[in-house]
């Protein structure tokens, strides 16, 4: 039994009771439902399977909802294969179009795809693809060098909070937190929805969030080092130091922290992780992470139960190693 909370992300690849049961047996303690892709009401059957699987394994699982909040995303669209050098027109929300200017660089889907903006229209923008890939519905979008303000809670978020008690939600993730007021607003919305016992997980996803950390610590139940979006806002080689700095600040303030994203990315398509991935999980837990979480590895990957097995087993090894280090230091 690990002390570290072990989270998967719910999605099409793990919706059956059989798969979810295998994931709980492998050591999963909770799951995240990403409300940028669905709603609690539309996930009724999935959540029912989740409960049945947990009951079968004798687990009282956490159910974490990840709100839409101020994150920028692509609109609903059919997938498009974008090749480098190609120009294509993408439908975008008014909030994004208002911020875009010709010449801007945009990163799509956690930076997998990169493009420059050719022109901006009323409903869409023309992009020149620099780094290609398949562009899919509702993927994240970052405009380099611009922080576009958005609401802490969208109408969709408020509707989901109203349903949260019914579906047994135990924690709420707020994306792109950059000020303590956002967390206070969420805390008040939770109290209004009779959810005062629900934990708040504050996602640090950009440099502003990192700078605001000292003010966020007293307002959060968990700080989330959300490396997907954070890695879009920094040179990637700067990310490990930022992760270490956030971890240290959390340890000093005694606020739990969670490390997420790409922990077992290669396992979306392979049953065994890389050595680098298991080292990443081990180091996060050895640095004091209270929780670790995978995202698309379980939501859309081919080996969701194996992913949880590697995540939980590696976290357990790191806990053992940390305890052994502490006891040998105490003996000296
Ligand atoms: N409930 C769901 N229903 C359908 N597809 C989903 C669902 N949850 C996730 N997915 C798919 O799995 C992918 C990975 O899930 P994840 O939650 O990591 O999404 P994301 O959009 O990359 O997240 P982030 O909020 O970190 O930007 C999503 O991009 C989406 O295509
Ligand atoms: C999970 C997530 O939101 C991120 O890493 O950006």
Automatic annotation (TrEMBL):
It comes from Candidatus Pseudoramibacter fermentans. This is Pyruvate kinase. Keywords: ATP-binding, Glycolysis, Kinase, Magnesium, Metal-binding, Nucleotide-binding, Pyruvate, Transferase. It comes from the Bacteria. It catalyses: pyruvate + ATP = phosphoenolpyruvate + ADP + H(+). Pfam families: PK. Residues 4-307 form the Pyruvate kinase barrel domain. The keyword Kinase applies. InterPro entries: Pyr_Knase, Pyrv/PenolPyrv_kinase-like_dom, Pyrv_kinase-like_dom_sf, Pyrv_Knase-like_insert_dom_sf, Pyrv_Knase_brl, Pyrv_Knase_insert_dom_sf. Pathway: Carbohydrate degradation; glycolysis; pyruvate from D-glyceraldehyde 3-phosphate: step 5/5. Its cofactor is K(+). The keyword Kinase applies.
């Amino acid at each position: 039994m690990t002390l570290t909370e072990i989270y998967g992300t719910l999605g099409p690849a793990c919706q059956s009771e059989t798969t979810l049961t295998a994931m709980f047996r492998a050591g999963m303690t909770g799951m995240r439902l990403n409300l940028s892709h669905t709603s609690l009401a539309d996930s009724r059957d999935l959540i029912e399977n989740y409960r049945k699987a947990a009951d079968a394994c004798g687990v009282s699982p956490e159910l974490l909802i990840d709100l839409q909040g101020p994150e920028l995303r692509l609109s609903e669209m059919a997938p498009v294969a974008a090749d480098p050098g190609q120009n294509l027109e993408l439908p975008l929300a008014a909030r994004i179009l208002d911020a875009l200017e010709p010449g801007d660089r945009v990163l799509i889907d956690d930076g997998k795809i990169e493009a420059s903006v050719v022109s901006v229209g009323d409903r869409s923008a023309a992009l020149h693809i620099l780094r290609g890939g398949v562009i899919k519905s509702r993927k994240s979008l970052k405009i380099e060098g611009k922080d576009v303000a958005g609401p802490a809670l969208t109408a969709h978020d408020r509707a989901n909070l109203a349903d949260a008690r019914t579906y047994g939600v135990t924690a709420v993730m707020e994306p792109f937190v950059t000020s303590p007021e956002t967390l206070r607003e969420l805390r008040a919305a939770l109290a209004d929805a009779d959810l005062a016992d629900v934990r708040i997980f504050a996602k640090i996803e950009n440099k502003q969030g990192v700078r605001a950390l000292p003010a966020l610590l007293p307002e959060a139940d968990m700080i989330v080092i959300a490396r997907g979006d954070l890695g879009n806002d920094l040179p990637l080689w700067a990310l490990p130091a930022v992760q270490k700095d956030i971890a240290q600040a959390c340890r000093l303030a005694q606020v739990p922290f969670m490390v997420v994203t790409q922990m077992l990315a290669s396992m979306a398509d392979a049953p065994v992780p890389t050595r680098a991935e298991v080292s990443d999980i081990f180091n996060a837990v050895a640095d004091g992470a209270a929780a670790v979480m995978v995202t698309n590895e379980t939501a859309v990957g081919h080996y969701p139960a194996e992913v949880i097995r590697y995540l939980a087993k590696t976290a357990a090894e790191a806990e053992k190693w940390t305890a052994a280090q502490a006891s040998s230091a105490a003996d000296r």
